[in-house]
């Protein structure tokens, strides 16, 4: 009987093993020795062939700043950045590198390291950085700075998940009660809170975190305004951020107390010398008394610690 049906599977362990076994060897002759064909196809594993030269210009009297990634080229011609690990982590080694008597201007030395994740050696692929000690005054070190893209230069169009999520987030931000974000501030500075929703959660007057959420809220309003495409949404966001700024300014102006003697507005330093402030060990009781006197907070000081609620 000719066997023309086969059971095949592939096993990946560095080599591609294609094993072909006649099914009938088991179904028709379960007690007989199976004869099968084994074919192997070797997959070429790429390896690092070169590393971009590593030269570090180190200001005299300092420890060199070694790159955490370097560019490598593989045997297949492709390249990428790979993570490094350097051997100068010992404190005594770094102290020596920062000693201008050991390494004066013009000195050169090397530091060895490895590209991790490579099995060329137990520690990885060996690399060497060349260090040149230079005069700080005469050296200009380029700084790579990443800049954010202004939101007004970014537009998301179409009917898709991104635009849907953006609009859902904006609607959520619009739904937040702006008066709740202002409650603690108005209470702190003795302004009326009638008609204002009392803060809750982390911004509850009873917590020690009150007021911190207002900064997040104002950032959310500004970012939402920049991203919004619906004119009615933008108008609500503009109105809410304007109200926040105006009412916080109203609170802040309560600290604008003019001193004829000093010829300027009072500041916190006017109520106690700086050295005395550094040595003071206040109590919560003293703080509870201090926070009732916003006129002595100091010019422009703004907080959300209601004087009506014990700390």
Q: Which descriptors apply to this entry?
A:
six-stranded mixed beta sheet; 22% strand; 8 helices; 11 strands; three-stranded antiparallel beta sheet; 3 domains; alpha+beta; Immunoglobulin-like; 311 residues
Task: Itemize the secondary structure elements and their pairings.
Elements: E1 6-12, E2 15-22, H1 24-27, E3 37-42, E4 48-51, E5 54-59, E6 69-74, E7 79-86, H2 91-97, E8 108-115, E9 125-134, H3 161-175, H4 178-188, H5 212-227, H6 231-252, E10 258-259, E11 264-265, H7 274-279, H8 284-290
Parallel strand pairs: 5-9
Antiparallel strand pairs: 1-2, 2-3, 4-6, 6-7, 7-8, 8-9, 10-11
Provide structural commentary:
The protein is α+β, with helices and mostly antiparallel strands and 311 residues long. It has helices at residues 24-27, 91-97, 161-175, 178-188, 212-227, 231-252, 274-279, 284-290; strands at residues 6-12, 15-22, 37-42, 48-51, 54-59, 69-74, 79-86, 108-115, 125-134, 258-259, 264-265. It has three domains: 6-42, no CATH class; 48-138, Immunoglobulin-like (Sandwich); 151-296, no CATH class. The chain contains eight helices and eleven strands. The strands form three sheets. Strands 4-6-7-8-9-5 form a six-stranded mixed beta sheet, with no helix packed on it. The protein has a three-stranded antiparallel beta sheet with strand order 1-2-3. A hairpin with a 4-residue loop joins strand 10 and strand 11. Residues 1-29 have low confidence and may be disordered.
């Amino acid at each position: 009987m000719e066997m023309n049906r086969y059971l095949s599977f592939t096993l990946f362990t560095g080599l591609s093993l294609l094993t072909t076994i006649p099914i009938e060897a088991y179904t028709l002759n379960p007690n007989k020795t199976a004869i099968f064909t084994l074919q192997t196809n070797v997959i070429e594993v790429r390896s690092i062939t070169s590393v971009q030269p590593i030269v570090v210009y180190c200001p005299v009297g300092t420890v060199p700043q070694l790159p955490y990634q370097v560019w490598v080229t593989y045997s297949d011609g492709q390249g990428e950045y790979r993570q490094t690990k350097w051997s100068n982590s010992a404190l005594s080694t770094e102290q020596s590198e920062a000693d201008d008597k050991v390494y004066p201007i013009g000195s050169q030395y090397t530091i060895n390291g490895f590209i991790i994740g490579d099995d060329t050696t137990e520690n990885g692929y060996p690399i060497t950085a060349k260090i040149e000690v230079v005069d700080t005054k005469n050296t200009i070190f380029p700084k790579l700075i990443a800049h954010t893209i202004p939101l007004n230069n970014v537009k998301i169009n179409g009917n898709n998940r991104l635009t849907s999520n953006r609009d859902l987030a904006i609607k959520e931000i619009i739904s937040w009660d702006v008066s709740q974000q202002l409650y603690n501030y108005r209470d702190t500075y003795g302004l009326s809170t009638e008609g204002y929703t009392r803060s809750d959660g982390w911004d509850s007057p009873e917590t020690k975190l009150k007021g911190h959420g207002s900064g997040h809220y104002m950032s959310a309003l500004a970012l939402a305004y920049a991203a919004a495409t619906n004119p009615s949404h933008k108008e609500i966001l503009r109105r809410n951020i304007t109200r926040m700024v105006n009412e916080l300014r109203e609170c802040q102006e309560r600290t604008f107390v003019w001193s004829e003697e000093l010829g300027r507005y009072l500041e916190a330093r006017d109520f106690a010398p700086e050295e005395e402030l550094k040595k003071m060990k206040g109590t919560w009781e003293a703080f509870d008394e201090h926070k009732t006197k916003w006129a002595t907070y100091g010019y422009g000081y703004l907080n959300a610690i209601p004087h009506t609620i014990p700390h």
